[in-house]
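User: I'm putting together a teaching handout on how multi-component assemblies are represented. Below are the sequence lines for each component of a complex, exactly as they appear in our records. Could you produce the 3D structure of the whole assembly as structure tokens, so the students can see both representations side by side? Please keep the chain order the same as the input.
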Amino acid sequence: MSWLPSLITPPTPPEEGYALAIKLSRMAVKMTQPDDDVRGELRADYANDADSLTAVSQVVATNFQTVAQANNYWRD
Amino acid sequence: MSWLPSLITPPTPPEEGYALAIKLSRMAVKMTQPDDDVRGELRADYANDADSLTAVSQVVATNFQTVAQANNYWRD
Amino acid sequence: MSWLPSLITPPTPPEEGYALAIKLSRMAVKMTQPDDDVRGELRADYANDADSLTAVSQVVATNFQTVAQANNYWRD
Amino acid sequence: MSWLPSLITPPTPPEEGYALAIKLSRMAVKMTQPDDDVRGELRADYANDADSLTAVSQVVATNFQTVAQANNYWRD
Amino acid sequence: MSWLPSLITPPTPPEEGYALAIKLSRMAVKMTQPDDDVRGELRADYANDADSLTAVSQVVATNFQTVAQANNYWRD
Amino acid sequence: MSWLPSLITPPTPPEEGYALAIKLSRMAVKMTQPDDDVRGELRADYANDADSLTAVSQVVATNFQTVAQANNYWRD
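Assistant: Of course. Below is the structure of the complete assembly, with chains in the same order as your input.
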């Protein structure tokens, strides 16, 4: 089973597209650091640091652009 | 009720689209750090730091691109 | 009166579109830190730091992309 | 044999496009630091640092935009 | 005289469009720090720091996207 | 002779487009710090630092978007 079978999410609401953007953002981290325990320990570092959270939000924003374009902004 | 029922904001003015871009920027932070108290404490960190504020503005700019495209730049 | 009645600026020159990009960049900061005095104090921090100024320029560049697209690059 | 014969990946799933985005992200690093041993040593630095992993994810997100556009978002 | 009369540069070569991207990148800095002397002093900071130069290059890359799109990538 | 006579690279493979993206990324650095010796000394700083290499890869990714768009993603 592919972890990314499609970029197309259900037509409404775009909330699911945003969730996919978060998934895409996390996957690059997971592929770079596959150890679940290490990632778990790192979580405390970025989840409690304002600038780290902003950086995470920047990645999500970039991926959300891609997903939103793929879905034609859920206009229809 | 979805927190993001649509990317389409009312036709005028684009000010509401900008507000949506801010909402999108904050949501990734909220989903990464769901604890309201922790986020509240972190607020003092970034709201009083010039570079942190610039980074926040960068995320908003990226999300505003998406919302503006979704709304065809409110041209009509 | 809306602070952002339109993304469309006069047809020539694109200089006004650039000014709008700066306005958009500052508005996210203002909405995150509404206190004028605090922002005034922070100004010395980023206006005298090379990397901070580059980061500001990055935000403006991103917003200028949006405004330029909205105005069809002032081609006509 | 070219390391990048095409940006077009098989039509389904977009997972292969994401893998290409990771390859593109790593290639710039490899071309800037061609020494395999040095890159191997640096890996511990970024694979165990939350902010470094977020920065890697940002690069992947940017390259994934390009690959997704090249493949018309695997819509068909 | 406008400092930015047009985003359209001569058809060939795109080198002039790149020069415009650099001008756009510097203008945001100039508008944020109008004092020529201060900017001159800051120059030593970023012109001799690898990461600062990379950040400058990132801003130029973003503005070059805009100028290249405005000129239809100088395809014709 | 222009250093950038065209954004259009040969139709296959896109590897040459990627090389152009690297050239574009380096040119902004060169124009900001024209001294070859200084740039040579700085090279050790970023070629041996994981985060610096990631930042370089981010600039290349942004420029590669531009070159890939200019070449219609080498689809034909």
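A couple of points students might notice: The two ends of chain A are 29 Å apart (CA to CA). Chain A touches chain D through 34 residues (CB under 8 Å).
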